[in-house]
Amino acid sequence: MLRRPYADALRDAGPLTVWAGPPESGYVRGLRLSAGEASVSFVAWYLRLLRASVTGKPVFAFNAGEFGVTKAYFGGMIAALPVLALIKVKGGRVVWLGGGVKVRKSGFMWPFDLLARWCDVLLWRDVDSPRLMGRGAVMPDWGFGLDGQQTLAPDGPVTERPLLAISLRGDREYPSLRWVRAVRELATRLSLEPVVVVQVEDDDAMGSRLARDLGARFVGWQFDDHLAQEAVVRATYAQSRVTLSDRLHGLIIAATEGSVPLGWCDRATRKISQHMEVVGLPWVGPDGRDNADRIGELTPDALAELVPLAHSGVRSARIRVDAVRADLHDTLTSISR
After folding, report:
1. Does residue 320 sit within a domain?
2. 194 bridge partner residues
């Protein structure tokens, strides 16, 4: 999701050549890449970048989102460094926007440090990455730049929304019975119908179990095409007054659809707070208190106070993402050919 608006912003400045996995995958379809934009292999992408660097002044845009140093990432970046040096010498551009660094891996960060140093535009999506990398500013996650199906109300509770959405990661431990009970009681207290939503295929088994335990409706994984699944998820969030999730982009999608995003889940991590702090919504993430207790304290009046804060944060984030798009366009189109 976050890479689609990034690709769209880059496309505005010129033709794209992208390596994002096999072109026939649902992930690539979710990026809305054309057949001519999606490279069939990393080698094909690399050779095209090399050719463009020799004959012109291309732009190299590094992946958005959180990255951890793997062998593939490390080897690929080492292979790309000579080409990036040529791009810089010839007057091309190097950009890295909306990235995030989970941890620094000793002995393996130097290619990425060099990439960051060479960037003409360097913006991180969380508050910790500038400190970890020693350079760069912050921007809202690209996901905030996607238009939702709903227009955000200026203020006031969204009383016509009948649902309480819950979406949990499938790669984490199942939540405690106490948390499940707190969610069930929240739905009753707010007079909402609980619905469990699956945003990523790997979450399906966890979601199915949670729906049974909550007595909730289940919106499971339905499409291999990520864009089609996103439409189903958005339609559900657009009817949800509140969304509980430990998945960052579940919260972001929900927020852009006007639902109040709450990362008050048993297994939620500080990652949510790090990203939501960038858009002025630090309360979305865990704060050290017991999350079942926080859910238990959420009254209708307390929720009504959060609605305008959430909507204001999303509107501000969209304005900032639009400004990043405009600055990126100016930077890339200023290349003298």
Report:
1. no
2. 164
